[in-house]
Every structure is written in structure tokens, then in C-alpha cells.
Design goal:
Layout: E1 2-6, E2 10-15, E3 18-21, H1 41-44, H2 46-56, E4 62-64, E5 80-82, H3 88-96, H4 98-101, H5 109-112, E6 115-117, E7 122-123, E8 129-130, E9 138-140, E10 142-148, E11 164-172, E12 174-175, H6 181-184, E13 191-199, E14 210-215, E15 218-224, H7 232-242, E16 250-252, E17 260-261, E18 267-272, E19 276-283
Parallel strand pairs: 5-16, 7-13, 8-19
Antiparallel strand pairs: 1-2, 2-3, 3-4, 5-6, 9-12, 9-17, 10-11, 10-16, 11-13, 14-15, 14-18, 18-19
Length: 287
């Protein structure tokens, strides 16, 4: 069973090609108080929500996946963490084209460190990517999205995977240029997550998943998560050594070679083994 947000902010369970409206499961969440605890309330209580969903499924209304507008499966992330140049072929690609990638950023992920994207740039599949700076290059970067499930600070690499709530498909969109990476990657709609959240226990090995991205039917990116320079567990341990991770925080775990420009009207088709696929449109200049 996969969890999603869809249409008019309804909570959905994805089962056998259908999306079931299980919004009533939200009644199982504890009442929100101000100031709220850090993190996404639903992700923090995911086990409780899933139990409530199971009770609702037999009588829940449904519609086919193709008739649903998928929103981000995480509604309120505290932060989005980026893992740059985390595949050898992308390191080579970036170093060979400093005119595009700039000479501010050289070497692999261990030399460059992690970065943050603004949570305000997060959208779902149905919302698509809107180009705010049409005169500049905007590139797609296909990644495995890792959603943190519980508070993590200074966790060990050995324990790190126990802090994962689940996985989604992620697009780390970026405007190329000389500015700091976090600025260029935090444009509204430049983080796409979806189409749903697959619970961690439903993925046998997140470090052995095929990933691919096509633009207008042309294959641009293809890799396996086994090719990462630093794996998911090390990413979590490293990030948590600098700042506390909270439920709903998202790690975009790095992209492979083949990143490229997108233009208004382009259609990106992203697929990750054992997770699914999402289609994301690129829209005209942001208003």
C-alpha cells in the first residue's frame, strides 16, 4: 500500500491501480498545537495512519490512478537536503563542462558537501515545473527521494536506515549559473516529489534500484542506485551530524549523468524500480 495526497488535498491509499479516499484516517492524528513540533505530522505518525487506512479501505471510494492529480506525498517537510554529484558519471560530466556547471563546484560529493533546498519549492507531479527564468538554463536531475520518518541526530551509519519512512521519485530541478547552489535550486516548483510514498519496508533494497528519466520520449538519464558514491545510510548519518532531521525531511540522494535542459511544453517521464513512475510537465514562464 502506497500513501499519497491528491486532488483537493485528500489523503489517498494506492492499491492495485486505484486511489482510495482515506481522508478520514486523518482523524487518528493527535490535535495540532501551536507552536507545533518540528516535522510533518502525518509522517511522524505514519504507523498510526496506516493502521487507520487499513480499517477504512474496504468501504472507501476510489478512482483509477489515471484520473487523479497527485500532489507531493509529503505535505510539510521541514527541509529538503540535496546530495550533489553523487554518481561518478555525473562528476565527470560536470567537470568536463565548467561553462555550464561553473568552476565553483568541482569534485565529488565528499568535497562539495550537502546543500539545502527551500521547502517552499516542493510540488507534486500534477503541479509540474514552472520556469521562472526562461533566459537561463534549467536542468532536470532525476533522483531517489528518501523521506525521514523519525527524529535523527548524530545517528550511526549502521542505524541510519531505521530512520527512513519511505521513498518517492524526486526531481531536483536547477537553474544553472554562478550563484550559490541553494539559491538556484530553491525556485518555486524546482523540487518535485511523487507520485506517492512507498513505505520503507516495501522496498527490499533501496540501494539496488534502477532509475531513468525521459524527456519527450528521449532517454536522458539511466542508472542504478548501487552506483552512488555515498549510499543512503551514509547520507543520513552525515546529514544528521550537522543538523537534526525531523519526520518529513526529504533527502534527494543524487543524480547520475545525462542532466539536461528543459523548455516549456516538455514532458518528463521518471521511473524508479519498485516505486513507480510519474509524468511531469514543464510549464510556460512563471507569472
Amino acid at each position: 500500500m502506497k500513501i499519497c495526497w491528491y486532488d483537493q488535498q485528500q489523503l489517498g491509499a494506492v492499491v492495485d491501480g486505484k486511489v482510495y479516499d482515506v481522508s478520514a484516517a486523518l482523524e487518528a492524528l493527535p490535535p495540532a498545537r501551536y507552536p507545533a513540533a518540528p516535522g510533518d505530522l502525518l509522517i511522524a505518525h505514519l504507523d498510526t495512519i496506516r493502521a487507520a487506512v487499513e480499517r477504512l479501505l474496504p468501504t472507501a471510494s476510489s478512482k483509477p490512478i489515471g484520473e487523479v492529480r497527485f500532489l507531493s506525498p509529503v505535505a510539510n517537510p521541514g527541509k529538503i537536503i540535496g546530495v550533489p554529484v553523487n554518481y561518478i558519471d555525473h562528476v565527470t560530466e560536470a567537470n568536463a563542462d565548467q561553462a555550464t556547471f561553473t568552476d565553483r563546484y568541482k569534485g565529488g560529493v565528499k568535497e562539495q558537501g550537502l546543500f539545502l533546498k527551500a521547502a517552499s519549492c516542493l510540488v507534486g507531479q500534477a503541479e509540474g515545473v514552472s520556469l521562472r527564468f526562461p533566459e537561463r538554463l534549467s536542468h532536470h536531475e532525476m533522483e531517489l527521494g528518501v523521506v525521514i520518518g523519525k527524529t535523527a541526530a548524530n545517528v550511526s551509519q549502521a542505524d541510519a536506515m531505521s530512520y527512513v519512512a519511505g521513498y518517492s521519485i524526486a526531481l531536483d530541478m536547477t537553474v544553472r549559473g554562478p550563484e550559490d547552489r541553494s539559491l538556484r535550486k530553491s525556485v518555486d516548483s524546482y523540487a518535485v516529489l511523487g507520485p506517492w510514498l512507498v513505505p520503507a519496508e516495501d522496498i527490499a533494497d533501496a540501494q539496488k534500484l534502477d532509475i531513468s528519466l525521459c524527456v519527450n520520449g528521449e532517454l536522458r538519464q539511466k542508472a542504478n542506485t548501487a552506483e552512488m558514491i555515498i549510499g543512503i545510510a551514509e547520507q543520513i548519518a552525515w546529514a544528521s551530524s550537522y543538523y537534526t532531521l525531523h519526520p518529513g525531511d526529504i533527502i534527494m540522494s543524487g543524480t547520475c549523468a545525462g542532466v539536461g535542459q528543459v523548455l516549456p511544453g516538455d514532458v518528463m517521464y521518471c521511473e524508479i524500480e519498485d516505486i513507480g513512475a510519474m509524468t511531469v510537465t514543464v510549464q510556460s514562464t512563471w507569472g
